[in-house]
Amino acid sequence: MNLTLKIWRQKDANAKGKMVDYKVTDISEHMSFLEMMDVLNEQLVNTGEEPVAFDHDCREGICGMCSMYINGKPHGPDKGVTTCQLHMRMFKDGDTIVIEPFRAVAFPVIKDLVVDRSSFERIQQSGGFISVNTSGNTQDANAIPIAKEAADKAMDAATCIGCGACVAACKNASAMLFTSAKVSQYALLPQGQVEAVERVQNMVRQMDLEGFGNCTNTGACEVECPKGISLENIARMNREYLSASVKG
Amino acid sequence: MSGLIKSSIARKVVMALSGLFLVFFLGQHLFINLTAIIDPDTFNTLSHFMGYNPLVQFILQPVLIAGVVIHFIMGFVLELQNKKARGVKYAKYGGSTNASWASRNMLISGAVILAFLGLHLYDFWFPEMAYKYIESNPEDATRYFPELAHKFHSPVRTGVYCLAFVLLMLHLWHGFSSAFQSMGVNNKYSTGLRKFTQIYAIVIPLGFIVIALCLHFSHL
Ligand code: HEM
Ligand code: SF4
Ligand code: FES
Known about the structure:
The complex is a heterodimer of chains A (248) and B (220). Chain A is of the alpha+beta class and 248 residues long. Chain A has helices spanning 33-46, 118-125, 148-158, 165-169, 176-187, 196-209, 220-224, 232-247, and strands at residues 3-9, 18-24, 68-70, 73-74, 96-101, 109-111, 114-115. In chain A, strands 2-1-5-3-4 form a five-stranded mixed beta sheet. In chain A, strand 6 and strand 7 (114-115) form a beta hairpin. Chain B has one domain (19-76, 100-218). Chains A and B meet through helix 6, helix 7 and helix 8 of A and helix 1, helix 2, helix 4, helix 5 and helix 9 of B. The structure holds protoporphyrin IX containing FE, iron/sulfur cluster and FE2/S2 (inorganic) cluster (FES). FE2/S2 (inorganic) cluster (FES) is lined by residues 56-59, 61-66, 82-84 of chain A.
């Protein structure tokens, strides 16, 4: 199929970017979206132009690096997939596809479609961990009984790949879904209880410091999350936060 | 505590608590107003009670005013911060594909309600305050219904009131259930709770619309 692409081009973090039109031809419907971008870039390199910079790594939906905002949706029109898993069969011959970087003050553009998501790393570092004794007498995690339901919910929360689609989709650029997934994966397990109070307070403080917006419960994040992280996690984080405020 | 108010979650809880208080107030307000189209005498009695009971006048009324003020100021602050958090706008934004209109436009529905509140206070509250506290008129338990009915002679005022109630519906459609999520309530009862909040969101404003129309058309 033949497509018109409207892509955000921005030389570096400080440059003023703009949308630029490109044409690609003979795109196979079996290609992934990133392979289509590879075709475009080869074309650009061959004509001596600067290829479009975009993030990617695993190309199998687990690393969370690929981050395009395609036709008004993070990771494009398909449900429950990342951009690298998006197939070109979701588009039709002659389509115009608008491709933008994830937009948030806390995700500044580095170049073209590449954004800096280290704000997520800082949220994680501020409390998304547990402390364990590593001097040789570490307790076997399997020796701690955990209810099946809690284990399942913690696992679901832990499948968040930190892609940032929730922020990109949210009208408020809020990072509540990400942060709540990271809080929940520990809040549900006995190992997470020791640092529970500081964890949620520190992670929420860092989230606010990074300049993400306030949640207004529109639910756009849950719809667009490639891993189906549930809004229940946000409610859980709100509970954790309120109880932490009471406990000090 | 100051840390509590500084965080985004705390601001949301303030929004939720003040919002829920207003939701409760609305139910009570509708109940009294309904008597206006059922039995004007009862309406007069209840209005007189509300107007002269010191608990209502000097405790509940200031709390209500504070609730409204806190709610809309916090609402504007939140939305302002949220606009800033996006930075550069999307060329093609698909907001309508993954969230309801009501949830995305709480500021618009809220601003219309605020404008309506201005008119509503001008219509009823200011004259009432002037009557009681400035002109120091005598108590008269029969004046409430005629004053109310008189206001709804105007088709323009009736129309404006009805329009505001439609936006109130939209505000509550999202806001009432959103308040529970903000306070961390999301469990196996939440689907049912959401249904209840959405029925409430339709029925209460609809009740006010029916009253406005009844009063208007019974005096043509
Ligand atoms: C005075 C004008 C008003 C303005 C400017 C206003 C504005 C807002 C805004 C911006 C929000 C935040 C959106 C969100 O968090 O989802 C909100 C939430 C809410 N509003 Fe209002 N509002 C007004 C009046 C009212 C009234 C009269 C009621 C009830 C009768 C009400 C009930 C609610 C509820 C329940 C919420 C949800 C709180 C939450 O999500 O935690 N609001 N309002
Ligand atoms: S919650 Fe979902 S959308 Fe947000 S970062 Fe995690 S995987 Fe991505
Ligand atoms: S490249 Fe790893 S998730 Fe898409």
